[in-house]
Amino acid sequence: MAKYFDVHPDNPQRRTISNVADSIRSGALVAYPTDSCYALGCQLGSRDGINRIRSIRDLDDRHHFTLVCENFAQLGQFVQIDNDVFRAIKAATPGSYTFILPATREVPRQLLHPKKKTVGVRIPDHAVVQALLAELGEPLLSSTLLLPDEAEPMTQGWEIKERLDHVVDAVLDSGDCGTEPTTVIDFSGGEAEIVRRGAGDTSRFE
């Protein structure tokens, strides 16, 4: 059964966040809220976590996993980024965007798009995730919590606990979360390409 953590959306309890971070370091797969919708997350190098996310979401090997980062300094360790792209992304973060960029050698091979050698990165604007990332000290390997054949993500932590009780290890609930996933912008070719229109405003990239 999944552990259930009720956390304050603006001032998450430090002890709770510490317990969840310890669980992630020990291999746990968690469902957690973001500034767009709920997501699944595990430790960066967890092959088991990746496989479990693929199984829950029914994903193929072309799916872009996302590295959810605390800040721009951390993001820069995992992707290659030139000055123009840097400025464009910097102006849009933190926020409800995922950016696809060429990966550095710091990114585990199993996370990369098999042909493009790219990975998704984002910096969320959500107090609970920021507290968890600060406690972890590294990015969270993540994917939108959107189940196969369902049009929208689940919005309630208790509902996620009921539905995924035997396939995730923990659920963080900080209240109602949005139903729109992030806006996805592909910068791997040097120019902004809008891959998915979601919670983030696309006008700055058009």
Outline the fold blueprint.
Blueprint: E1 3-6, H1 14-25, E2 30-32, E3 39-43, H2 47-57, E4 66-68, H3 72-75, H4 83-91, E5 97-102, E6 118-122, H5 127-136, E7 140-144, H6 157-163, E8 170-173, E9 183-186, E10 193-196
Parallel strand pairs: 1-8, 2-8, 4-6, 5-9
Antiparallel strand pairs: 2-3, 3-7, 4-7, 5-6, 9-10
Task: Write a structural description.
This protein has 206 residues and is of the alpha/beta class. The chain has helices at residues 14-25, 47-57, 72-75, 83-91, 127-136, 157-163, and strands spanning 3-6, 30-32, 39-43, 66-68, 97-102, 118-122, 140-144, 170-173, 183-186, 193-196. It has a 10-stranded mixed beta sheet with strand order 1-8-2-3-7-4-6-5-9-10, sandwiched between helices. A hairpin with a 6-residue loop joins strand 9 (183-186) and strand 10. Helix 1 (14-25) crosses helix 5 (127-136). The longest helix is centred in the first third of the chain and has 12 residues, at 14-25. The radius of gyration is 16 Å and the shape is globular. The mean pLDDT is 93.
